[in-house]
Fold this protein.
Amino acid sequence: MAKNEIQAAISGDLSLKILNQLPTPVMAVDKELNIIFMNKAGCIFTDKKWNEIKGRKCYDVFGSEHCNTENCRMKRVIKGAQPKTIRNSVLMNGKSIPIEYTADALRDNSGEVIGGLEYIIDITETVKQEQKLKEQSRTILEISTPVIKLWDRILILPIVGVVDSYRAQQMMDTMLNKLKQTSSKIIILDIQGVAAVDTAVANHLIKIAKATRLMGCTCIISGISPAVAQSLVQLGIELGNILTNSDLQEALADAFRILNYKVLKQD
Amino acid sequence: MRLPESNNQENLNALGIYEMGNCLIIPAPQDINPNSALIIQQTILSEVERKSIKKILYDVSVISVLDSKTYGILWGTAQMAAMMGARTVFISFQPGVASALVDLDSDIDSIQTASTLEEGLEIIKMGSVNE
């Protein structure tokens, strides 16, 4: 498009045009929270005509969770607070819409605060995604602590993935309760599937092993790979008197030895 | 710390402490507190001295809440008894108690535990160290 064509298309006040065509609601209020400006997207968002909105209190138009509370950023910026992006939800046509809005003070030419302005972003999709993510991580968490009874008085907990403190706590709880239920004597922690063992993870493992000791059990950590052994030693982590093995078979053999079991081949 | 000299037989009955051979079996009360733990400690130690007890089974499986101070007394009891020549085996802390003690960073390496009373008796009979 040629330059003069653009100028023709947006005749009049250029900045006002742009503001009106901005696809996100923008609103300005005076110090008494009377709406003095709302762009087109804002009118569409509130499903009202500019004439209906003009001069009304913003809390009457939006009716959000923050309206008429101390949380209202608009009130705060008028009083001199810093601009900040914050989450909120508004009630539109009986439906609650999650939004994110940023408010700042509206100043005149001399820099005096004469009101506030804000822009609003509809974050329905983001919130949906977040909920989905939360659900998924909960599902993963639920399937991530399978304490399996391997043999009489022997339990095994295969650990796969990343061990953070929340998961470690959950593993500990599940494990100890299962120990109590089955009054097992040995618990094997198989860390073959743990990507990396750093000080934090090692500490969690040591904690778990100690807690099982308090319940009269022996904890064997199996599946220690060369890389893990190297990093544990290099980090200077003492596993103390916790039994460790490189693979599950050895760990099971150790467990059998402690319980005085013997595996015999039939003739 | 001075505690009232325990009136032995009476105390033993009140605390539900049993004696089998040279072994003492002590059930900890469910609502154990530092005071009751100290009374039990005093009783155990005087029994160890009087009857030359060699083995102590301290059943802590009914305790649902245990603070670190009380745990310190339990731990101390085991250490003191060890000095007097008696071995102490604790019977199964509850899951919640165990994880709390670990979180509180209590010293748990130097005590011995068994998962059931039966196993505790076995450990003591064999005289082996609980791995």
